[in-house]
Amino acid sequence: MTQVAEVNHTMSNEQQSSIGEQELATGYHESMVAEDDEDYSAGPVPIQQLVGNGITPQDIKKLKEAGFHTVESIAYTPKRHIVTVKGISEQKADKLLMEASKLVPLGFTTATEFHQRRSELICLTTGSKQLDTLLGGGIETGAITEVFGEFRTGKSQLCHTLAVTCQLPIDNGGGEGKCLYIDTEGTFRPIRLVAIARRFGLDENETLDNVAYARAYNADHQLQLLHQAASMMTESRFSLLIVDSIMALYRTDYSGRGELSARQMHVAKFMRTLQRLADEFGIAVVITNQVVAQVDGGAIFNPDPKKPIGGNIVAHSSTTRLYFKKAKGANRICKIYDSPCLAESETVFALGQGGVIDPSDETEAAEDE
């Protein structure tokens, strides 16, 4: 003890300070690891938890290859879809569903408990305070938000802004997670993320690394990318999934009324997969959509005859629908087109070098989309 005391006594102040900093850093790192473990345990249940009671690791491997990566994905899927997986019999599907129901609550709950869970949901800031206020705090997680409008109304710019803000701390309006970005029209520009990251004080390289980008080339590929997204979300924390835009490829892959039924069935499957991912991982899903001019008799009495494409399938699958319109200069108008909890109203926002901003910030506003 005497020798140790003498050594500590002879140690310089700089050395002691260095050791103290190392201990502090080590303690901070351990606390971050503990927080990550806690967040992981509160997230979706890994599908490996189903091993046992007649379910083998080989069965889990087959399910993963078919796009099932969590217990929730099994619990939320109809039995007739599970039995289509190669090597999964009807009896095995029954066992999978029975074991999944033990780990994932699927029964009734009180409105009080559900209200408590809803109050704990986070919203992602859009970059505009006025737009956030209109949306009740921002883009809702665990739900699908559809943004539709003509070209140059700010749809893609909102997507670029959200791809950055979703990485912010929760206290700053973010989701502390990465972003998955599916681009169907080739409008994704990383340079925009760099400018937006500077606005929010984020490291440019880290911001780009936290965005997983994929270009979809046809409707089938677009759906396949969602299966890859599910696998990625089990390995890392994501808070946002963007599809820009959802119907662009369907308009070219399916033509004429003869293929309308097949197109809508494919769209329904895609939207159902999006909702499943939102339910499983609690992420925010944002999709953009195009509009078409209404040419029936009702257009005569409608001051704005444009309507989103996709029909009732997209309309019923989207939780919140936002209508973007052009205004003067860099200003744009956002109207609540449909929402289960938001009143039909509208607000004005602007587009600038830093993405979506408030119109009052005239120093950044620019005619840019």
Relevant terms:
single chain, 3 domains, 369 residues, two-stranded antiparallel sheet, alpha/beta, Rossmann fold, nine-stranded mixed β-sheet, disordered N terminus
Descriptive notes:
This protein has 369 residues and is α/β, with parallel strands linked by helices. The chain has three domains: 12-42; 47-103, 5' to 3' exonuclease, C-terminal subdomain (DNA polymerase, domain 1, Orthogonal Bundle); 114-357, P-loop containing nucleotide triphosphate hydrolases (Rossmann fold), CATH 3.40.50.300. Helices cover 45% and strands 18% of the residues. The protein is built from 15 helices and 13 strands. Strands 5-4-6-7-3-10-11-12-13 form a nine-stranded mixed beta sheet, sandwiched between helices. Strand 10 (320-326) and strand 11 (331-338) form a beta hairpin. Helix 9 (155-165) packs across helix 10 (190-199), helix 12 (219-235) runs parallel beside helix 14 (260-281) and helix 14 packs parallel to helix 15 (311-317). The termini are far apart. Mean pLDDT is 86; it is low at 1-41. Required both for recombination and for the repair of DNA damage caused by X-rays. Residues 120-291, 298-362 form the RecA family profile domain.
Query: How much helical structure, as a percent, in the residues?
Result: 40-55%
The main sheet comes to: 9 strands, mixed
Q: How would you name the CATH homologous superfamily of the largest domain?
A: P-loop containing nucleotide triphosphate hydrolases
Mean pLDDT: 86
Shape: globular
- Find the CATH topology of the largest domain: Rossmann fold
Helix run count: 15
Distance between the termini: 70 Å
Q: What is the percentage of strand-forming residues?
A: 15-25%
CATH class of the largest domain: Alpha Beta
Query: Strand sequence of the main sheet, in spatial order?
Result: 5-4-6-7-3-10-11-12-13
Q: How many β-strand runs?
A: 13
- Kindly name the structural category: alpha/beta
